[in-house]
Amino acid sequence: MARYTGPKAKIARKFGEPIYGTIKSKKNYPPGQHGNSHRRKTSEYGIQLREKQKAKYTYGVLERQFRNLFEKASRMKGVKGEVLIQLLEQRLDNVVYRLGIAKTRDAARQLVSHRHIVVDGKVVNIPSFSVQPGQVVGVRERSKSLEVISDSVSAASHTKYAWLEWDKGSMSGKFLHVPQRADIPENIKEQLIVELYSK
């Protein structure tokens, strides 16, 4: 499946935010031939599209998956935009990243795809798998000695998110409950995404 594999600093500069974590760049203006020049005012559609692209790049989701998630959120109870962000947070690759098992969402997706991650003791290799409250996400027994995992786990802050509970001994974390929008740190204006898809 197609994924963005280009320069990550370019994406961070495009949105003016550290989409992929802290990326150092001396250029504090958007990329491209006219990045440093004064641009005309962005249209309402442009602002909404930009917000959708930011969410897609942040969570590493392609257009079809993103639209499917939006349609699923539309059918669920609650505020559409908030439910959409909550569904993105429940993705297995995102939970692995939040638990500190991987340093980035891309690395988390790779660990899941390569069968290093278990959910309730069973290997799950689908990054988009939706983790439900009460489920335990951990590292497969034979993968616990992997340097990339041990380095990430030792450097992570496991008390960062109230909806996750980390068990150091078993190298696993419990998904306690679906997080409230106010607790999710991503700087995404989800209402703009709802407005874009509602046109």
From TrEMBL:
UniProt name for this protein: Small ribosomal subunit protein uS4
Any GO molecular function: rRNA binding
Region (Disordered): 22-44
Domain RNA-binding S4, first and last residues per copy: 90-154
NCBIfam families in the cross-refs: PRK05327.1, rpsD_bact
Domain Small ribosomal subunit protein uS4 N-terminal intervals: 3-89
UniProt GO cellular component terms: small ribosomal subunit
Cited function: With S5 and S12 plays an important role in translational accuracy.
Biological process, per Gene Ontology: ribosomal small subunit biogenesis; translation
Gene3D superfamilies given in the database record: Ribosomal Protein S4 Delta 41, Chain A, domain 1, RNA-binding S4 domain
Subunit relationships: Part of the 30S ribosomal subunit. Contacts protein S5. The interaction surface between S4 and S5 is involved in control of translational fidelity.
The entry's keywords: Ribonucleoprotein, Ribosomal protein, RNA-binding, rRNA-binding
SUPFAM superfamilies, per the entry: Alpha-L RNA-binding motif (SSF55174)
CDD domains: S4
Entry's transmembrane regions: none
Family: Belongs to the universal ribosomal protein uS4 family.
UniProt entry tagged with the keyword Electron transport: no
Domain of life: Bacteria
